């Protein structure tokens, strides 16, 4: 995996990035034989890797949408659609923007601070949006909103 990541393989890079966040904590728990904690780390790692893969595929679908509709889209749309989609997912799931969540949760990387359940909900919204874009031709921001509506997401408060 390391060799693939060094060569620029995006999937290997995503897996490596997700792995780094838990390595030290896992080493500590292994040293002290904390099996329950290890299972939690493994589950979170799996959810994090799945989320990264879904996110990468979603950004590819957004890029494809932009390319297919380039003549009809403004430069501002093309520039901000990725961040607008991300912000909309956060507002659907948490009721707040990423910057507000980062401030409240005192973190730099929002998804690393999410619980397993939160990661799975975000992944679910993004997966459904991806399907709506790729298979039904939805505009990306509309697809994100529709995914939230179809999944009946209740805002998470913590």
Explain what the structure shows:
The protein is mainly α. The protein has a domain at 44-150. Helix content is 79%, strand content 0%. The chain has helices at residues 2-6, 10-31, 35-68, 75-94, 98-105, 110-113, 116-136, 140-150. Helix 2 (10-31) packs antiparallel against helix 3 (35-68), helix 4 (75-94) runs parallel beside helix 8 and helix 7 (116-136) crosses helix 8.
Assess the beta-strand content as a share of residues: under 5%
Order of helices and strands: HHHHHHHH
Which whole number gives the mean pLDDT? 88
Shape: globular
Number of helices: 8
Could you outline the blueprint of secondary structure elements for this entry?
Layout lengths: L1 H5 L3 H22 L3 H34 L6 H20 L3 H8 L4 H4 L2 H21 L3 H11 L8
Provide a short characterization of the protein structure.
With 158 residues, the chain is mainly α.
Primary descriptors:
single chain; 158 residues
